[in-house]
Amino acid sequence: MRSKTESILFRAWSYFRTGYATYLAFPIGFVGFISTTYYLMISNIHFFASIFPSFYTYVVVMILSIPPLGVIIGWIHMKKSLAFSAQTDVSVESNPYTYKIRRGVTSEIS
Questions:
Q1: What is the DSSP string of 2-58?
Q2: pLDDT tens-digit profile of 11-67?
Q3: How many CB atoms lie within 10 A of CB 84?
C-alpha cells in the first residue's frame, strides 16, 4: 500500500506529463517547426520565398492548413489504421480497469 505522500507524488507526475504533453509541448513544437522551416528552407529557396514573401504569411498559411490536416490524419489513424487497434489491445492488456466491449453489445459496468 502506498503512503499518502507517494500517492500525491505519483498523481502530480501523471498530471505533469498530461499537461506538458498536451498543452505545453504542442505550442512549443509548433513554433519551433514554423520558425525552423521558414528560416532554413522557405527563405533560402527562391520559389518558396516568392509564395511566402514574409514570415507572417507563412504562419497564417500554416495555422490554417496544419490543424485540418492533423484532424484528417488523426481520423485515418483512429478509423483505418491497424496501429490504433494494436495500441488499444496493448492498453487493455496492461490496464485491468479497462474493458474491451464488442460493438453492438450494450453493457453496464458498475
A1: --HHHHHHHHHHHHHHHHIIIIIHHHHHHHHHHHHHHHHTGGGSHHHHHH--SHHHH
A2: 999 999 999 988 999 899 999 999 999 999 999 999 999 999 999 999 999 999 999
A3: 14
Half-sphere exposure of 46 (CA within 13 A, CB side): 0
What range defines the domain where residue 22 resides? 4-94
Q: Can you tell me the distance from the alpha carbon of 38 to that of 55, in angstroms, rounded to the nearest whole number?
A: 7
Confirm if 61 and 37 have CB atoms less than 8 A apart.
Answer: no
Q: Which of 52, 29, 27 is nearest to 39 (CA)?
A: 52
Who contacts 109 (Cβ-Cβ below 8 Å, separation ≥6)?
A: 99
- Total domain count, the chain: 1
Find out whether 62 and 55 touch, Cβ atoms under 8 Å: no
Amino acid residing at 47? F
All cell numbers assigned to 76? 485515418
Instruction: Supply 102's cell numbers.
Output: 464488442
Residue 102 within a domain: no
